[in-house]
Design goal:
Blueprint lengths: L1 H7 L1 H9 L4 H17 L4 H24 L6 H6 L6 H6 L5 H20 L5 H19 L7 H6 L13 H17 L2 H9 L5 H29 L11 H17 L14 H21 L15 H24 L10 H29 L12 H5 L4 H12 L5 H23 L5 H21 L1 H5 L8 H4 L2 H27 L4 H30 L2 E9 L6 E3 L4 E9 L2 E2 L4 E13 L2 E14 L10 H9 L1 H8 L3 E3 L2 E3 L4 E6 L11 E11 L2 H22 L1
Antiparallel strand pairs: 1-10, 2-3, 3-5, 4-5, 5-6, 6-7, 8-9, 9-10
Length: 703
């Protein structure tokens, strides 16, 4: 009864905050902090409920201000606009730093309620986490009034136009919730290291698995979003924030592999809680990167930043982890037992992959801090673009390409052998054979992979050099050939393992809870990996200059028998607040005599505000098509493009339409680009299989 009353109290609290000024929601944050500190002393569960109810009421008040276009609130003025849909207005709860802090505090206190019902360090740790974010929200204050001079300048600043997609509603909050699921039980993980007892086994099975599921789902949706947005159709480009998420995912995946064998005084007594803490630290570090201006990133929050809050939290947790590991080793616990070497190899390889990515991030930060110049081979397309640039544009180009980010090619060079080893060991582990027969098959697969890498050269035979694959990637073709064989071996081994369980008449509960999910997850992982390699390495690129509007409505021939017809259906359509849709494009794509698609899409935006001097011209169009970074630096979101996409089981075709002026001059030309990705739909099929398999684990675990 008390539980329901605490949540029902949110309604009048939120109503009071909605119809009041700035003072009431701020006072809720103050009271939530007082309640959290009181919970550290006694009455933990009531204190956690009170803190969660108060921060949720404040969050509802901010949501109401966003829905009502209350631009007298500075946060609403900064992030929203009257014309955007209601769901995007709500998505602005996490569209800026201040709203994100309030959201994190609310989730942190909500998770603390269940943790406070348990004895031990888990509840206090979760309360401290929620209190840290609530205190930061109080300092950065999403309820601050808009300065009069800002309102005089413009009615609202509007949402970043790159965020005006439905994926904004799902992708960021899933990642945030995953990070907090990893962070909330950190107190229990510290207790497991220091004292060797507590609720870490139960909490790890629940929080780690749900956190991994949400992080994987959020990452998959983010990949779909990137494929449809301004990064020129790439699924993954080692943006610093993406790299941080990858580090978190690697540590979380390694920790998942410890769950079935973990015993507080035995197997993985050190490894499991340590990996849980490293996952939480990596999540905090990723939120540091999101707020850091030092590396070039498409995910960075702009404006006033709570960077130091996350730096301090990550630092404190790292220090606590080091102390706890020292205490654990000083206790001299019993050595591990009953764990196969293959499982240790998998855990070590996933951890090593995370450390490799973390090392490249650290290297980028050190290079930026020491003003180390970037080498020319880390500046893709720079030499091409500089040939078209005027003097002012060349200055902008140099500034854009001088800022450091993660060396994606170097990272791939390190990760490729790790991926090969993981696939080969995974196939060996999952193969339902014993003794010499298993070793014989795994050895044969390894020999076949080596032969293909050295002589067969599958990727080399299919590669035609028609896409944007760089020479550095060509140097990895041998590793990719080996990974293809090992990945197929792992997928076949996973499926045969499930079939063997059927023949043994394994109980349905064991099959649903382990055998089937393991087969589905590992098969899906290999399908997604191999399809992603094929799509991004064997892609093709074709460009032709078109005159507009003269070439509109005419069939345009492209390589491989494609024929594209583009027509301008509508111009000057108001959309997305300060942004205007200047072209509603009708298009059809044929492959020989077969019509692939006939559709209509909104692809071209232009900011209704006056563009900055010197930011227009052919170089900018080329940069928007080739490299998102220069477009971000020069245009400052004044223009952007989205692709038209024809999806298929064997290949995807993207059409990139350039940003056009409202009144084009006669004979004006612009590049129209076609990109073809083989097997890309199988990436989504593989990711779906991974998530479905893991969801089966979560459902059977709940039962």
């Amino acid at each position: 009864m008390t539980r329901w009353l605490s949540w029902l109290a949110v309604v009048p609290l939120a109503a009071l905050a909605v119809f009041s000024g700035e003072v009431v929601p701020r006072s809720y944050l103050v009271l939530s902090l007082i309640a959290a500190l009181l919970g550290l002393w006694r009455w933990r569960v009531p204190a956690a409920r009170a803190s969660a109810a108060l921060t949720l009421a404040a969050l509802c008040a901010l949501a109401w201000r966003l829905l009502q276009d209350d631009f007298s609130t500075h946060y609403v003025w900064l992030t929203s606009a009257p014309e955007i849909p209601w769901y995007l207005k709500l998505a602005n709860l996490w569209g800026g730093d201040q709203g994100t802090l309030l959201l994190l505090g609310t989730i942190g206190f909500a998770l603390a309620i269940s943790l406070c019902r348990r004895p031990g360090w888990g509840g206090p740790g979760a309360l401290l986490t929620g209190a840290a974010f609530a205190a930061a929200a109080l300092v950065w204050d999403p309820f601050r009034a808009t300065p009069p001079e800002a309102l005089a300048e413009t009615a609202s600043r509007a949402m970043n136009a790159h965020l005006t997609r439905i994926w904004m509603v799902f992708h960021p909050p899933q990642v945030f919730l995953a990070f907090l699921l990893f962070l909330a039980p950190a107190g229990a993980a510290l207790q497991a290291l220091v004292r060797g007892d507590g609720d870490w086994p139960a909490l790890a099975r629940s929080y780690s698995r749900w956190g991994w599921f949400l992080l994987s789902l959020g990452t998959a949706l983010g990949m779909w979003w990137a494929y449809e947005d301004f990064t020129y159709g790439t699924l993954w480009h080692w943006d610093p924030v993406q790299t941080g998420i990858f580090v978190t995912w690697c540590f979380a995946t390694a920790q998942l592999h410890t769950l079935r064998r973990y015993r507080p005084g035995g197997a993985f007594a050190l490894t499991s809680p340590l990996l849980g803490l490293l996952t939480a630290i990596a999540g905090l570090a990723t939120m540091v990167i999101t707020r850091s201006p030092h590396l070039a990133s498409s995910h960075r929050y702009l404006g006033e930043s709570s960077l130091m809050v996350f730096v301090v939290l990550a630092g404190l947790l790292a220090v606590a982890t080091l102390v706890a590991v020292g205490v654990h080793l000083a206790r001299r616990p019993r050595p591990r037992n009953g764990v196969e070497a293959r499982l240790w190899f998998a855990i070590a390889l996933f951890s090593f992959a995370g450390l490799i990515a973390a090392g490249h991030l650290t290297q980028a930060y050190i290079a930026n801090a020491t003003a180390l110049p970037r080498s020319d081979d880390l500046k893709p397309f720079f030499e091409t673009l500089r040939r078209f640039a005027n003097a002012q544009e060349l200055v902008e180009l140099r500034a854009a390409f001088a800022q450091w980010d993660v060396d994606g090619f170097g990272l791939n060079r390190w990760l490729a052998p790790v991926g090969c080893a993981l696939a080969l060991i995974g196939g060996h582990y999952l193969l339902p054979l014993r003794g010499w027969r298993r070793w014989l098959i795994s050895g044969a697969v390894a020999v076949l992979g080596l032969w293909l890498a050295l002589e067969g050269q599958v990727f080399g035979r299919f590669y035609q050099g028609l896409g944007l694959t760089s020479g550095k990637t060509l140097a990895l073709f041998g590793w990719l050939d080996f990974m293809t064989v090992a990945g197929l071996y792992m997928a076949v081994a996973a499926l045969t393992g499930w079939l063997a369980a059927l023949r043994r008449r394994t109980p349905a509960r064991a099959q649903l809870g382990y055998e089937i999910p393991v087969a589905v997850i590992h098969t899906g992982a290999m399908v997604a990996l191999l399809a992603g390699l094929s799509a991004t390495v064997l892609d093709s690129y074709a460009q032709r200059m078109v005159s507009y509007p003269d070439d509109f409505g005419r069939p345009l021939a492209f390589p491989d028998g494609y024929e594209l017809t583009v027509s301008l259906e509508q111009q000057g359509t108001a959309r997305d607040g300060a942004f205007t849709a200047i072209a509603e494009v009708g298009w059809s794509l044929s492959d020989g005599d077969r019509l692939l698609v006939a559709d209509q899409g909104h692809t071209v935006y232009q900011d209704s505000r006056p563009p900055a001097d010197g930011s227009l011209g052919p170089v900018r169009m080329m940069c928007e098509i080739i490299d998102y970074r220069y477009a971000r630096y020069v245009s400052e979101s004044h223009q952007m493009i989205h692709p038209l996409i024809s999806r298929g089981l064997t290949k995807d075709v993207q059409i990139w339409f350039p940003a056009l002026p409202l009144e084009p001059d006669a004979g004006s030309q612009a590049p129209l680009v076609m990109k073809v990705y083989p097997l890309l739909s199988w990436v989504w099929i593989g990711l779906t299989l991974i998530l479905l398999g893991h969801l089966m684990v979560l459902v059977t675990m709940r039962r």
